[in-house]
Amino acid sequence: MPNEPAPNHPAVQVIDVVRDYPRPRTSLLGPTPVVHALRGVSLEVKQGERFGIVGESGCGKSTLLRLIAALDRPTAGQVVVEGTDITTLPERRLRFLRENLQLVFQDPMSSLDPRMRVRDIIAEPLVVQGHPASGERVRELLEAVGLSADAGDRYPHQFSGGQRQRISIARALAPRPRILIADEPVSALDVSVRAQVLNLISDLVDELNLTLIFVSHDLSVVKHVCDRVAVMNAGQIVETGPTADVYAAPQHPYTQRLVSAIPTLERALSGATTTDLLPSKGETA
Ligand SMILES: Nc1ncnc2c1ncn2[C@@H]1O[C@H](COP(=O)(O)OP(=O)(O)O)[C@@H](O)[C@H]1O
Ligand SMILES: [Mg+2]
């Protein structure tokens, strides 16, 4: 069953968001040192859009996602989800967000409780929200992510990395969210299964009419699934546009560097072996 129709607002608006973290002191004197994780970020994600955020490790991508999911609060600026400003909303008023917005993380091994059976892992978000999942709903979710019904009886360690990420996706879909946020969902996976998991996410987003916010350090991965992309560098967005345009004609020097690093990665994504990635004789690297 598809999720409820969304209210008539952009899915997510981020307005001039700043997030500073205190850095551990190295001296007793002077002001508390600060990490400027986000230095004034603004973006708007429309309903049903597949929005990518790309940038190198440490540029602030996960921080931005945590703020959108209200797992953290900004130092300044606003985050508006489906028309509601969540910036200062108390936890008890965030229920709509916990139901309508779900996350998938990079490392399924550390985000899945190893002591729980898969069926309980998938049902957990619903239990937390007070309407437990039926066995039938769990089987439906397992099927949707391409796992067999008996997978529910097993534990996370009995699955491969790609299968564990499928379990995380099933769990995220359990509450029928409207917005799915994926933080480097294939970065920890073997190259050979990356495309399968990306295709699965892409198909489910289509089928269930989801808004997708997809983070990766790898522009070729984002290109595979997203309509529009924001490029981040050092806590700021340096360029936003349709993915195909940013990929074909990057405007900002930082994006140009990211794009010029792609051909090798793209071949890696398509399953090329290390030997294929090495320059052949006579070719300069
Ligand atoms: N809880 C935190 N406390 C202190 N510094 C943090 C915290 N979370 C992130 N940072 C710092 O903020 C910056 C951005 O981190 P992050 O959002 O994780 O980047 P990315 O996801 O792009 O790799 C990094 O310098 C990181 O060390
Ligand atoms: Mg991150």
Describe this protein's structure.
The structure is a single chain. This protein has 285 residues and is α/β, with parallel strands linked by helices. The strands form two sheets. A six-stranded mixed beta sheet has the order 6-7-8-3-9-10, with helices on both faces. Strands 2-1-4-5 form a four-stranded antiparallel beta sheet. It has a domain of 177 residues: P-loop containing nucleotide triphosphate hydrolases (Rossmann fold, 3-Layer(aba) Sandwich), CATH 3.40.50.300. β9 and β10 form a beta hairpin. The longest helix is centred in the last third of the chain and has 17 residues. Magnesium ion binds next to α1. The site of adenosine-5'-diphosphate has 11 residues, from β2 and α1. It comes from Kribbella antibiotica. InterPro entries: AAA+_ATPase, ABC_transp_ATP-bind, ABC_transporter-like_ATP-bd, ABC_transporter-like_CS, Oligopep_ABC_C, P-loop_NTPase. GO terms for molecular function: ATP binding; ATP hydrolysis activity.
Keywords, please?
binds magnesium ion, Rossmann fold, disordered C terminus, binds adenosine-5'-diphosphate
- Catalogue the ligands: adenosine-5'-diphosphate, magnesium ion
Strand content: 15-25%
Q: Say which CATH homologous superfamily of the domain at 12-23 and 33-108 and 184-272 is assigned.
A: P-loop containing nucleotide triphosphate hydrolases
Uncertain stretches: 272-285
Helix content range? 25-40%
Specify the biggest β-sheet.
Answer: 6 strands, mixed
Terminal-residue CA separation: 51 Å
Encode the helix/strand succession as letters. Answer: EEEHEEHEHHHHEHEHEEHHHH
> Structural class given helices, strands, pairing?
alpha/beta
| Largest sheet: spatial strand order | 6-7-8-3-9-10
Radius of gyration: 20 Å
Report the strand count. Answer: 10
Instruction: Briefly note the CATH topology name of the domain at 12-23 and 33-108 and 184-272.
Output: Rossmann fold
Shape call: globular
Mean pLDDT: 89
